[in-house]
Amino acid sequence: ALQFFMCHICCSRLRCPPLRLPPVFVLLSLQDAFEVLAENYEFSEMEGPCLAFRRAASVLKSLPSAVESLRAAQDLPCLGEHTKAVMEEILRCGRSFEVEKILSDERFQTLKLFTSVFGVGPKTAEKWHRRGLRSFSEVLAEPSIHLNRMQQSGFLHYGDISRAVSKAEARAVGNIIDEAVRAITPDAMLTLTGGFRRGKEFGHDVDLIVTAAEPGREQNLLSEIIDSLKKQGILLFCEYQASTFDTTKLPSHRFEAMDHFAKCFLILRLEGSRVDEGLHSAEGDSRNWRAVRVDLVSPPADHFAFTLLGWTGSRQFERDLRRFARLERRMLLDNHALFDKTKKEFLTATTEKDIFDHLGLEYIEPWQRNA
Ligand code: DGT
Ligand code: MG
Hints:
Pfam families: DNA_pol_B_palm, DNA_pol_B_thumb, DNA_pol_lambd_f, HHH_8. By secondary structure, this protein is an alpha+beta fold. It has four domains: 1-104, DNA polymerase beta, N-terminal domain-like (DNA polymerase, domain 1, Orthogonal Bundle); 108-156, Orthogonal Bundle (DNA polymerase, domain 1), CATH 1.10.150; 165-301, 2-Layer Sandwich (Beta Polymerase, domain 2), CATH 3.30.460.10; 307-368, Beta Polymerase, domain 3 (2-Layer Sandwich), CATH 3.30.210.10. Helices cover 42% and strands 17% of the residues. 35% of the residues are buried. Bound molecules: 2'-deoxyguanosine-5'-triphosphate (DGT) and magnesium ion (MG).
């Protein structure tokens, strides 16, 4: 969501909020317009229209070329009245007044700024906005605001973690964790997932799954990895969440529900990744390291395939796949399991292909899941 606009001033695809530059943006495409509308609805907690615009953006993404005429737009699926009206206006006039109004709206700009901090969600951002706060310096100077550990780290490393992570940096992070895992046990397995598994060149974080060869043996893995990273002096932040996974619980139909496997949200110090001074540096000096956001999840081996499918994303692909399972197959799918409501049983899977087979779908390669 950070990458919609080209900032005229710093020529960055990412935003440059630390500088509080005036909102001089060029809207890039219809897809961008839909994403702005979706995000605005998300800030107002209106899930229905938010998802409708996300789905419409996803439909446009799946097309071989950009929609440039009303004729081409006519036969597209999944577009509601509101979406069509915005599309028509942009195709006719080259702009959308509704989108422009949102982009110049102070509340939208402030919520976007605040939610770009690691650990700050729409509710907190809204709360700060309602208190009259409009900038990072105002938040940080406000004595009545208590930042939790995650938010403190989010502000501290803001410059680094709002800069995109490259594939090479993701690989380097993978190697560090892999070495730590191998020193703990030879039979554990580390898998790169998230956007990088879908072939993306850049991401906002590095998502990794670590699991042991046998169910149950993964239990202490994450804590031991965290200890190892701490000893190496490269752990800048860690929030560990122990497993609350219950094998008898039915898969959740809500995509937004976080999964229950043990996981940790980290910020790691990645050496050798040069920070050239520019507009995005928080520190203001030249360094030979950068901070990188890393998510690690650790499912038991017999649930690995579901976690791999769930964490590979994209979010829209996961939403659509769950919807398909529920509406077309009477099955419940989430990051933990697949449940057949007709047979009233859990279906097992050791590979992602097993899950697609259960759903009666051909295997979809990760690079085809960029919905
Ligand atoms: P990125 O990092 O911006 O390049 O994009 P992704 O696709 O790697 O997205 P990310 O890192 O936020 O999450 C990776 C995948 O993990 C995502 O596609 C779906 C899954 N996931 C992340 N957070 C949640 C969550 O809260 N609930 C569920 N069900 N799945 C999640
Ligand atoms: Mg990711």
